[in-house]
Specification:
The protein is α+β, with helices and mostly antiparallel strands and 560 residues long. Helices cover 42% and strands 11% of the residues.
Amino acid sequence: SYNVYRGTTTNGQGTTALSTGVTTSAFVDSAVTNGLTYFYKVTAVNGGGEGARSAEATASPIAPPPAADPTTLETFQLLRQATWGPKPGDVEAVKTMGREAFLTQQFGAAPSVYPDTLFSQGTEVAQEHFMSLAIGGQDQLRQRVAWALHKIWVVSANEAALNSTAIVTYHRTLLNGAFGNYYDLMRNVTLNPAMGRYLNMLNNRRQNAVTDPLPNENYAREFMQLFTLGLVKLNQDGTPELDNTGATKPTYTEAEVKVLARIFTGWVSGDGNPATIPTGTSSTNFAVPMEPVASRHDVQDKGIFLDVPFPAARTATQDLDAAMMAVFQHQNIAPFVSKQLIQQLVTSNPSPAYVQAIAAVFANNGSGVRGDLTAVVRAILTHPEATATNAMNGKLSEPALFIVSTMRAFNATVTDHPFMTDHAELMGQKIFYPGSVFSYFSPGFKVGGTNSGAGPLTGPEFQGLTTVTSLERANFIGEMLGGFFGTNVVIDYTPFTSKANDAAALVDFCNLTFMGGRMSAQQRTELISAVNVTAVTNLTERARTAIYLTLTAAQAQVDR
């Protein structure tokens, strides 16, 4: 805290003495009110008492901020949504090529590679590989969509049986399916052995006798509740469908969960050889999809599931495919999946109109194809709400995005990556280790307030934002600027120090680099004043001050 003592005001009529003892939490060296320039003396106050007053400070009034360029701001938003954050020059490059051309380029980029060598190197090395690709991979959009899908189709390395082979093959499945069809993604993730182990579909077998245990219902339940349909029937705009009493309607019954559990029986660890039948008695092979064993599949008449009959004498594959199609054709899947993808990429609180527009694309990509994820992602990123800047739009940058986007904004050279995954964990997000099947943060976490009368505001990522993790975010920026990461991170501060003799120019550059030009006028004024506390000869410290205060402010950590 600072005690700010007013010295004198000067105008054309002379000098007038002012009172002392005004307290403020931020240093401001001058201000202009009613044509009078106020100059200040400053004294610091702490538990040990009050220090000496400074010499009288004089300064010119701070000029107003430059007008934000709408195209720059919209392009910056796009790159925060469709990549792990813009690098220097990216905004101008995308402004030149245009949004559609950029997206087409990204949809055509080759997928990042997770090599087999990661199988034997442990999950920590896989985490580091993930971070290295996020920083430098060319398939930025594919990576962001795969990461979004990971937070919907949750598999967690917290399951002790899941090793690096399991996590790598699972993430490969998401990368390969990110721009494919949602039906194929549903089927491929269902048969992924990491998912099979995590939610107990692997080795799930039929009940042969009354004394045998019933088939495990875990995957059947989560497959519908979290991955595809949700708990209540939805209108195509994502709002609940109500009965004539105003109550919601359940999407499925408990009986249907039991039916689906029976449908999902008979799948065991694959041997990678289609010419042989796996025994299901060997240790799990996480490198290949699960395969069916006829003797373990329930071949009895199972009754009705989502209005579709499941008669006797079907194979495990036939039952699986029929169940997948019943879910894929259900009214809920388009709005349920569309809303979650919007929340992951753009905003925690999309309007019903936004959800309905994307659900329509999910239902039909314009060529009669349902579930086309390329069309869905393109529609999400080109919808007018994707460039909205109102107070209800946007989302908190989760730790992984906060860390990687910072490194990319500096175009930092990173030669070792453990510090990134370690700091993400300290901020509340351990990569590949979501805390539960509900992901790293609950998708329904409420932050208070209402969304234009559409219900409580949600903000999943805010569930992980506490007094401790907030401090860890600031600590990460402080350690980075202080050189705590040594030669593992090399940052060229020249673009910042070259402007540091002019506090306003420096802050405006930080605004464009880290916020796309959306810094508020009040925050800009405060940052300029803070920079001016440091002598103009110490350009490095002035640059670090501006960067630190920009990146640790709430405005920079909420993508809007």
